[in-house]
Amino acid sequence: MADGRSRAAQKGREMDDRKLRILLAVIDDYVHTAVPVGSRTISRKYETALSSATIRNEMSDLEEMGFLEQPHVSAGRIPTMKAYRLYVDSLLSGGTQVEEADSVREFFFDRVRQMQDVVESAASALSELTRYTAVVLMPKQLDLKVSCLQLVPMNTGSALLVVITDGGVIRNQVIRVSENLDSDALYAISKVLTSRLAGRTLQQVTEALAIYSRYSGADQEVCGAIADMASQMARQTGTDTIAVSGSHNILNYPEYSDVDKARAFLSVLETKDKLLSFLPEEREGFTVRIGPEMGLREMADCAAVCTSYRIGGGHTGTVGVIGPARMPYGRIIGILETVGEALTGLMGETAR
Amino acid sequence: MADGRSRAAQKGREMDDRKLRILLAVIDDYVHTAVPVGSRTISRKYETALSSATIRNEMSDLEEMGFLEQPHVSAGRIPTMKAYRLYVDSLLSGGTQVEEADSVREFFFDRVRQMQDVVESAASALSELTRYTAVVLMPKQLDLKVSCLQLVPMNTGSALLVVITDGGVIRNQVIRVSENLDSDALYAISKVLTSRLAGRTLQQVTEALAIYSRYSGADQEVCGAIADMASQMARQTGTDTIAVSGSHNILNYPEYSDVDKARAFLSVLETKDKLLSFLPEEREGFTVRIGPEMGLREMADCAAVCTSYRIGGGHTGTVGVIGPARMPYGRIIGILETVGEALTGLMGETAR
DNA sequence: GTTAGCACTCTTTGATGGTGAGTGCTAACT
DNA sequence: AGTTAGCACTCACCATCAAAGAGTGCTAAC
Question: Average pLDDT over chain B, rounded to whole?
């Protein structure tokens, strides 16, 4: 029994180069066909030098090692979550191929560029490119500082309040103002407001205005509206803003030909909390969650590939792709890298 | 043969009150259960005074008249598109019940209100309330007139250009400006621009700026950007802006338990042209397209219920619900009425 | 260490027969 | 005449069963 642990007996249980090649071949084939892959397939399509029997032996070992499994005893093998994990890890350690950079950029240029818009078109571009579900998360920005406030006249009695923050986040809202304020008067108010409030966080603006409005009788109305908006912005930028696109792409994949499964998947995407639960905290590089790592029963056979992008002020957002565990990770990571870079670029531009 | 057309022979083919009641009962039952309904069901649940045999005779007549059909010879009956049409027409001629007004309004109030946002939250509210797919169309506005242009300083070298039109449509974009323009200088430019351009349509603004920029050397950059934006806005507001929400609700209904059907449905929603093809031109009241009236093979067993809402300037947008032909039209129409009114209210507010 | 051969397993597919819901028709009833 | 009971008939649905095919594990030979 003691030599059950000897080198010879262990031999079959160690990962060697050939085993790895076979495993990758199985993964590759399964990713494309979604059909359990048999030894003969590998023998003919990938390792033509080896016979199916040899492959069979190796696959048997790989199964014992936990990288493959059989849906039933006489079907081919399919990769386990552990196999995908290995596969992804090997991808991430090497460099990733970037080929689709051009088409990615094309997707962006035609569109209006403002924070929200950018986030949405990024999601839509990403889902179209990958044919999976794309998620883009706007960074939380609890410490946004106001850099400019301006009132733009609309009709008499109403004006558009524009707030610009250092992160480049722009928000505007229509407010009611006293009817005898013309364009110049509004501008004068804007200047005063900006000089007093610039550099403060949204939270501080809310507080400051509560005090300020006591002293200025006439503009009380305006101050109230601004305070409202500031606190609303603070709330909004403190919460996560999410853009999801291409959620129905999931229907293209046979693992979701069961409508109930598809519905479960889609309903997770609708539930902000659940969605956030498996999107990683901001961090460098790529994060890949596979199967149980997602932490949700409904997502037990899914995977999520995420990366982060930067906007001004040290804030980072998250962008990712969600699909069945059987995904072409290499391609996804390549696309995601480009999209992440494009986002960093565009957000920078908007923010500057 | 001539008296084959006599009153007696025709008798069974005329719609009388009892036939109508039975037809409505079949529709009602089928709408809720999605199962072909048999004579016995009607006899027990609806027309308890009549025996199943009598119902059977009437249903047979109704089938001959084209209001009912049998999926196969010994199944119950299901309503035809013609039946839904009759049903909807009778609903529309009477008043509609509005019960859910409160919950509709609640849905709106928490949200940011700006044109685009309003349209989107309307779609989302509508789909959540009805559990069907909701579509909201922003009105085309080819004749929008600029009422105000203003440059708001951001960092040095860039400014936010805000354009306000008479329809209340607000658009803003970051543009680069000469670095030695401070807040006051930008305001001065804004005043000049507004005074020269106010009242013109976006198209005219584009043209005017092409000329104007020849004379003013320094601000050429700014003018170019404005011209760009104006033409972009003109293009955008000339095109239809569509918000679709709850498209996956379709999966809740058994007629779409076939994934291929669901996919076909969803892909229509993604194709702007197809989507627009069955949304009615602006018109008063409710429009209901049923089955073949949709004009798309993929939508042959669907229905769309639409109504319109008004924004300032005589423009009207469209809001609608899409689902299987088997829909609780009464409820849908009620909800749609409230949403339409709410939209008219909110858009008015934004626009004023 | 690799491969050919073979028995075995288990899904898939198609055919078969029974069951039940629902109909149409006829004859009797009001 | 309109309504109802009764009955034969049809057809989807379901379970059962057998044949086919794909793929494996094991053994023996190379």
Answer: 81
